[in-house]
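Hi C.,

You asked whether I'd gotten around to modeling the 428-residue construct. I have! Everything is below, sequence then structure, no commentary in between.
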Amino acid sequence: MYDLGILNGRVYTENGFINANVYVKDGKIAALSAEKLSCEETVNADGAKVLPGFIDPHVHFALTVAGNTSTDDFERGSINGLLGGVTTYIDFLDPLKRRADFKAAFDERMSLAENSASDYAFHSCLANPEDGAKEMIREGLKYGITSVKLFTTYSNTDRRTYDDYIKELLKQSKPHNVRIVIHSENDALVDYSDKILIKNHEKSRDTLCETTEVLKLAQMARVTGGNLYIVHVSAGTTADIVAREYRKELENGSIIMESCPHYFIFNSSCYNKRSGYLYTMTPPLRPEEDRELLCRDIDYISTIGTDHCPFTEDMKKHKYTSETPMGIGGIKYSFVNMYTLFGDKIIKKFTTNVAKAYNMYPRKGTLMPGADADIVIFDDRARGVIRDSESLYNGRDVKGRILNVYLGGKAAVVDGEYVGSKGKYIRR
């Protein structure tokens, strides 16, 4: 007797869709079968697609920067995620300089995440660290953290990590099976002036700023054999050059490029709007030709993260970028937006690819027997319009609708409405 059976769906596997029923027992996927087996509860998917729960590898819940705190705490942010099919996300510890500070940073984020409605993990985060690369990696492993985030920019706030240290992190990443996660901008090309108008946001840290830094890091990864992960690739120029020059590393997974839905949908002309401040994030939106090229190179983008970090309009409504907190929301609509643009090819970038990149596979990112029963029922035949006055995606026509979402075999979303859930920390 199974606990749950999801019947008559088109079930996603790494080899394509199959017509099958999904059976759940004790919070795990127990079987995929064409047969109708005995269950405590059954749900008729009625031809909808049955997908693994999505994993957002890049969110910032309850993030405070320069006195502004992002509007989604862990509870609200995770609920919005579940409404978008996200059953697991990875947030960040506050930036660290010393291994002695690790426990306090971990305990603080764990405390904030107590009310998370979905499962979660953390990246450690470094800021011009003082202790050695190996020591910082090993300290993170004590807490089940197998990814190290750093910045190549923000020298003005002492968050930049420098090349010699990055090289050592990359050298240590393979033997320790960790991923080095990098916000990549050429710090010497960033304009740190206090009086940059919103309309000039993209010009102050332009495509060249990203591309030159990513190419340097890609070569460092090639030489060291390290595990490199480039977050929020914003420019098609960057993706295109990496795809041509580092194809082998992309194919074997030693270099992974992540991007965000907003870079495929919006361009830097948004900064000329009266409400241009609402579109500010770092790195910024790019010119239309870069957006188009990024869309053409979608096959070389391995994962989709949202960089979810919304602020209220009052917080963001400023004349200069130095006064404006950077970040937008998007976790609720990330999958449906990307599915509308790219169809089924986007699924693995929300599931299997993320799970493999971050040591969660095969527990997450798949519907194979033994995996956590994190399941999304997605009606790809539906058509609709996003109606959300708080979202930049308000008014967008979209294909598909998230119907039901299950976390560990228990319903968290039913017919598009959140019904309750409780998440847990995932050691990796």
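If it helps when you're writing up: The chain has a mean pLDDT of 98.

Thanks,
B.
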